[in-house]
Design brief:
Length: about 350
Amino acid sequence: MAAPQGYPLLCLENPLLDIQARGDAAFLEKYGLKENDAILAEEQHMGIYEDLLARDAKLIPGGAAQNTARGAQYLLPENSVVYIGCIGKDKFGDILKKTCEEAGVHTEYRVDEAQPTGKCGVVITGHNRSMCTHLAAANEYKIEHLKQPHVWSLVEKAQFYYVGGYHLTVCVPAIQALGEEAAAKNKVFMLSLSAPFIPQFFKEQLDSVLPYTDYIFCNETEARAYAASHEWGTEDVVEIAKKLARLPKKNTQRPRVAIVTQGTLPTVVGVASASGSVEIKEFAVHEISKDAINDTNGAGDAFAGGFCAGVVSGKSLDDSIDMGQWLASKSIQELGPSFPFPKQTY
Ligand code: 26A
């Protein structure tokens, strides 16, 4: 049952089940994968899921923004988060729905009749993860679903939107509709760049929604991929954060904030002012010993989840970043994009 008052945070993207196992250089080479990357599966990758299962792979609920939704709800009061995306009519879809329910995240999935629930092969080597996604049903999300009265009423009741950039490969009109709603009513719109291939190969789609963003999230590799695809002529993370913060913006009542995480290096944040100048801030991560790291799959999603929780609960930028760093440090001590149970408090 949907909460009658709605959910303050609405997240949209691709619901996926992660099939995660340890691999090695030969395994990566077999499928032509980099050790730390995210790609869309092509014909030659389709065997990877069976191959991972033969390596005793774990099935873990994933999908980047779905991880962020669960992460934000982890820190927020009950009934704070609703997640939207498309699943298939199958067991994997049931697992995703149940995991969200257990995490207290309300789901409004479109259920596709024909395609199976999407899956993401995750190959862990050391502290790296390589992801290969077969979107299947997740690719069937439609704006018509978002515009149904019972779904759109959740959009209207939400005050904060978080969209995973991976959805730019799926349904740009849905992202634009959320962006328009946010800009028209001075609500908060947040977007992650998700992976280097988004600015590389979905540049136009990305640039069509960036003007709506109040907060842009990316890691250093995605920041550099954005800079390269826009021929900015710099690989310097501080320079890129400044330029991202200064990009044209639809809602001028809020300053643009660009947040670049860099693994264990400090998070760089650019905050634009009305005059066009950008203030740069740096925040150390919550360090944990290397031995305590389980795997880093979902670290960025967890960071965004903690950060969103901060913003939704009216915390300052600095406090919200710290909540993001805290939740990321918790998530990398778990298997896959998960959070400690019993619940730990920030
Ligand atoms: C469209 N693609 C490639 C994707 C993804 C994705 N989530 C949505 N769309 N590729 C990988 N992921 C998810 O990223 C999480 C870690 O950040 C994985 O499912 C994994 O849980």
